Amino acid sequence: MINLSISCDGAVPFSVGCYAVYVNLDKLWQERHVRFTSLQNFINGCLAAGVAQTLSFPFETVKKKMQAQSPLLPHCGGVDVHFNGMIDCFRQVIKNKGVMALWSGLTANMVKIVPYFGLLFSCFEMCKQVCLYRNGYIISPLSYKLKPGVDQSLGPYELQEFRRYLRNRKSHEAQSSSIGNRW
């Protein structure tokens, strides 16, 4: 349970930071009516992940240190330092090794995370263009809106037949009313 809360405490700043940086970069570099290339989206995603990972990495460090002293491991993981909680772990790490120890291992993690999120945001933007048709020239097949009162199982042929029936019915009514007025 403790490790779950630590994981969530690290995931929330990462997710919020990544999204906030990406959206602000998008606004900052956005030119009117010009879409970014895939490379620009990749760079935005990489920058967003880098900033977010740097901000949230101390939580990851604390989580790993607390997992290493798990009572489920033989001899409590073989570590000689024991923590009473997340705040105690932060305090001991800063006291014993300094503030920069919270970011120990950040470089290796960046090598893994940064390209992953660059690709993720590139794919996201590509799918957004396909699904939302933001080019202004064609209508998206995904923007199909249902019409109230129309049976959605009808195909185009059935609708054309129904329209012909209604036109014929109106023309017959018009003819019969004009004949009825003569008499």
From TrEMBL:
Solcar repeat boundaries on the chain: 36-130
UniProt keyword terms in alphabetical order: Membrane, Repeat, Transmembrane, Transport
Gene3D superfamilies the UniProt entry points to: Mitochondrial carrier domain
GO BP, sorted A to Z: transmembrane transport
Signal peptide: none
Cell location: Membrane
Bilayer topology: Multi-pass membrane protein
Cellular-component GO terms for this entry: membrane
Name of the protein this chain belongs to: Solute carrier family 25 member 43
Organism annotation: Labeo rohita (Indian major carp)
